[in-house]
Amino acid sequence: MNFRLTEKNSFLRFSYFLSLFLIMFSLIGNDVATAQSHKSKKQTAKVYQLKPADKTFLEDLERRAFLYFWEQSDAETGLTLDRARTDGTAHPSSHPSYNIASIGAEGFGLSGLCIAADNNWVTPAEAKQRARISLDFLLNRALHKNGWFYHWMDKTTGERRWRSEISSIDTTLLLGGILTLRQCFADDKEIVNLATQIYERVDFPWMLAGSPNLFSHGWKPETGFLMARWKDYSEQMLLYILAIGSPTHPVSPDIWYAWKREWRTFYGYRYLAAVAPLFIHQFSHAWVDFRGKRERRFPHTDYFENSVKATKAQKAFFQTLSKEFPGYSENVWGLTASDSQKGYIAWGAPPRDAAIDGTVVPCAAGGSLMFVPEITLPALSEMKNRFGKTIYGRYGFADAFNPNNGWVNPDVIGIDVGITLLSAENLRTGKVWQWFMKNPEAKLALQKIGIR
Questions:
Q1: Residue-wise pLDDT tens digits, 404-413
Q2: CATH for the 50-449 domain, from 1.10.287.3510, 1.20.140.10, 3.30.565.10, 1.50.10.140
Q3: Considering the entire predicted model, what is its pTM?
Q4: DSSP string for 274-311
């Protein structure tokens, strides 16, 4: 009796552990299959075959875009104009934007130095010299608050302009460029040292402004912290990654999961988005390589695929407007924050913005070249071929144009030129991703967050 009970118990224990083993093996198998699937996606993203004509067009577009940053950045401060005329002339002293520099634009421009040197548009020595000038000014002369910079500065003096805020997101874009420099010119000790000091000076906990997990949009000396918070999915992912990975002023990785995830579904595409402008799906991706990675926490968001879906949804949306605005077509579409005939508008789609008037913003497709070249590259190519010099000039595409009434914006805007430049280079070579992801702080942050 005792023997039979013991035998029975042993059999039950054996069955239990066998079942447990089979479950664990199944889970491991699923993880392996998932990892292989992610790897397959990552490889697929790399194998888009550019035709010779595509390569020629992209190199021309990038070279023109880089020229904006080379010509419109100050030789003594490195600060980059927020905007300029499409023919390369700066605005006169009577213009509201006269000599206004954007630190966000400078971040794209600093990354552009790496692209230009790699493509021999300027010599490595020339690019490094410009990089040293820019970094030295930012570290030793530019106004800052706990390492954070003013959104708008005087291009020549670095003084605060437009009573602008100390900006969390624009400082973040600047840091993206600074840390790209640190890796692409890793053989230059001065550049590495300057870049490291600027990054490590930034006090990330201070920008939480008393919140346990949500960064403020910025701070003003007159009124203190701005009330707006980075509380939902927008362009701030790079901000959180740099903060979590900071070796000197880190924040808890738990803050990554504190902001709200709001899912939208349009035309069969389901994706995260707090607001409609397409740039929210592009800016962080200019530097952070999210391909083949997803959050380990449910619902296991793949942010690269999220941007793919957002771009596809926008194209689908514009096809529904072609009867109302005949200028929209299969390859003439795109909307993100830009100039318009009525001034600057932070518009996008879907859903439909009431201000939509037939305008097309080329950097909407340009900033998504790295995600879906199969729809964005034909769009940009057709715009250039159909409208020619009317919209395509010294620095590439005009910031916006309206094919329905013939209006063309006389300006280009630095951040819009910049996202087109970096996205095109990531499509062509992946080099910006490669340089930035060599930073150990970025890798550490993703590991802490649980994005693999």
A1: 999 999 999 9
A2: 1.50.10.140
A3: 0.90
A4: SSS-GGGGTTGGGTS--TT--BSSTT---HHHHHHHHH
